[in-house]
């Protein structure tokens, strides 16, 4: 059966925030762009609505007229190559684009000037950072500025990212920030250690007074915790007023999940906003994928595994050192240290959703018995959750 898998790449701006997401459609087993359009229409109810744009393009092949069967949400931007503007059906394709109020991004290539001359309006012009030098990007950004906002794709390293911004790109799409920068510290700093202490207290069901005393040592920590719990992503019907109130409403087990996010927020890394968004997406994705595959009691642990999967980059400390200070369940530690275990395949799949290898994405989904549709739905729901948690 033909399937369409979705992977993603974030567009990061100068403030290290993810301002848009680039979704890539992988057409498996001979799937057509019309089938891709059908798959996208089936995801309408879980599409992340909001201010952030979602670019949608096809891997290995240009998105042709078949994808125009999709009814895109307002924040969607269709990413197009020049090929469908130049083939035998170009006139009809161009007329359709002009007639529909679509957000469009032109992937710049040697035929870009010819495409622009058709009169089709583009909101963005996308440049592959691996195809042009920084000097070339600077010239092209200036020349194409009247025709669309310049953005870069596939900036593989921190150096590529900076070069793209200096060349005039508004944002650059890449995963370079997942790799820890600099030499890992030998231990957690005092602020990070305090959060670990608090987590350990909650995990062993310590007396409420003891936990409150630990929280009072860091007022900012208490404030941040309450903001997380009261955020849109949590979905509570009433506002939590205090830690004691949180324990009453949630219980220790659920609270442990949300306290885990605080450790990630202790980061001083300049790329922390993008790292946090990625960790949150992984966390929610793994939690959703676990439904029906593991016991309900494991859902929160899957979330924590995803949330902690970038702690080495966020905290600047080796994963071994982070886990040594914490009393985590063995399946979480096994997954984070690359030893597999119960949660390992879920983390591997979450990571595959961030790559360009469609075969690996299909294989990892197959290992968990997941269809492309089930994975794509969970993926978009997780992305919407991470957006809602940016507070």
DSSP helix fraction: 40-55%
Relevant CATH superfamily of the largest domain: Hypothetical protein af1432
Mean pLDDT, all residues: 89
In the CATH scheme, the class of the largest domain would be: Mainly Alpha
Order of helical and strand elements: EEHEEHHEHEHEHEHHHHHHHHHHHH
Number of domains: 2
Which residues form runs of ≥5 with pLDDT under 50?
none
Radius of gyration, whole Å: 22 Å
The biggest beta sheet, please? Answer: 8 strands, mixed
CATH architecture of the largest domain: Orthogonal Bundle
Q: How would you characterize this protein structure?
A:
By secondary structure, the protein is of the alpha/beta class. 48% of the residues lie in helices and 13% in strands. It has helices at residues 33-41, 83-86, 90-99, 112-116, 134-144, 158-166, 190-203, 208-216, 219-229, 243-265, 272-289, 299-308, 311-315, 319-324, 330-336, 344-352, 358-367, 372-388; strands spanning 3-12, 18-28, 53-58, 76-80, 103-107, 124-128, 149-153, 172-173. Strands 7-6-5-4-3-2-1-8 form an 8-stranded mixed beta sheet, sandwiched between helices. Helix 5 links the parallel strand 6 and strand 7 (149-153). The chain is globular, with a radius of gyration of 22 Å. The two termini are 41 Å apart.
């Amino acid at each position: 059966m033909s399937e369409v898998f979705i992977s993603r790449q974030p567009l990061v701006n100068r403030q290290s925030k993810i301002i848009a997401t680039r979704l890539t459609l992988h057409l498996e087993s001979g799937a057509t762009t019309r089938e891709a359009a059908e798959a996208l229409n089936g995801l309408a109810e879980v599409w992340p609505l909001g201010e952030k744009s979602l670019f949608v393009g096809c891997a290995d092949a240009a998105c042709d007229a078949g994808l125009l069967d999709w009814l895109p949400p307002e924040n969607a931007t269709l990413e197009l190559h020049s090929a469908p503007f130049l083939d035998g059906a170009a006139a009809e394709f161009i007329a359709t684009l002009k007639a529909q109020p679509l957000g469009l991004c032109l992937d710049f290539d040697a035929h870009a000037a010819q495409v622009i001359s058709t009169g089709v309006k583009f909101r963005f012009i996308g440049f592959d950072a691996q195809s042009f030098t920084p000097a070339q990007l600077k010239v092209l950004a200036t020349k194409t500025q009247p025709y669309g906002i310049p953005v870069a794709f596939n900036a593989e390293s921190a150096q590529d990212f900076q070069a793209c911004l200096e060349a005039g790109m508004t944002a650059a799409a890449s995963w370079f920030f997942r790799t820890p920068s600099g030499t890992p510290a030998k231990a957690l700093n005092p602020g990070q250690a305090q959060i670990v202490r608090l987590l350990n207290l909650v995990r062993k069901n310590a007396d409420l007074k003891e936990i409150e005393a630990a929280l009072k040592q860091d007022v900012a920590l208490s404030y941040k915790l309450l903001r997380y719990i009261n955020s849109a992503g949590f979905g509570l019907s009433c506002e939590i007023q205090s830690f004691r109130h949180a324990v009453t409403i949630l219980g220790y087990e659920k609270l442990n999940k949300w306290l885990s996010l605080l450790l990630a927020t202790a980061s001083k890394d300049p790329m922390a906003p993008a790292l946090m968004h990625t960790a949150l997406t992984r966390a929610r994705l793994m939690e959703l994928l676990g439904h029906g595959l593991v016991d309900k009691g494991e859902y929160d642990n899957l979330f924590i595994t995803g949330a902690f999967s970038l702690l080495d980059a966020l905290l600047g400390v080796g994963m071994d050192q982070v886990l040594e200070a914490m009393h985590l369940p063995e399946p979480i530690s096994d997954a984070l240290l690359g030893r597999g275990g119960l949660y390992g395949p879920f983390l591997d799949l979450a990571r595959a959703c961030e790559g360009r290898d469609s075969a690996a994405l299909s294989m990892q989904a197959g290992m968990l018995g997941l269809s492309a549709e089930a994975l794509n739905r969970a993926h978009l729901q997780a992305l919407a959750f991470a957006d809602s948690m940016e507070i």
